[in-house]
Amino acid sequence: MDILEKLFNSRYRAKLLRLFVFNPEDYFKKLEICKRSKIPVSNLRKELNTLLAVKLIKEKNVIVKSAAGRKRVKAWQLDPMFPLTANIRALLNADFLRQRADMAKRFKNCGKVKLLVVSGVFISDEDRRLDLLLVGDKLKKNNIDNIIKTIEADVGREITYAILDSDEFLYRNGTSDKFIRDIFDYPHERIIDKLIF
Description:
Helix content: 40-55%
Largest sheet: 4 strands, mixed
CATH class of the largest domain: Alpha Beta
Number of helices: 9
CATH architecture of the largest domain: 2-Layer Sandwich
Radius of gyration: 19 Å
Distance between the termini: 56 Å
Order of helices and strands: HHEHHEEHHEEHEHHE
Number of domains: 2
Oligomer: single chain
Strand order of the largest sheet: 6-5-4-7
Structural class: alpha+beta
């Protein structure tokens, strides 16, 4: 089986690709991978073995400190020598940007959302300090946090986000608050826009 066939025949593998390709400097332990990518532990070993077989990732023993002392555990990282990393990153980025159209649907049960703005990683601008701004009333922060975690698992990246109620947003916008200006003075996209400002 060739490399591409091995890489793209599993939905779990796609999540692992995103995790490793978008976090190339980081080593991940088994439970951390499961938590960040939402892959069941029972499926993880097979997926990691496939990525090891094509040499996309490498394995290393790392020392972990705990109350019981130190112990060695396995961890995995993107192999910097893998020849197709740039191509896979471009493909994953294209897929990631396509998914932003579904963003409004994801937040429909989170209260009265009046403004949803994406920037940063959602528009291929890695230099922005905020990726998502959600403004509304009676917002359900626990629901929003869970949705963000799901988005992070789907895309393999941490999402920097802010939640503001409508009055606070309008006040901050009216005073030319630097945080608000950092969003609206640079490239961004309004996914939901029901506020007049």
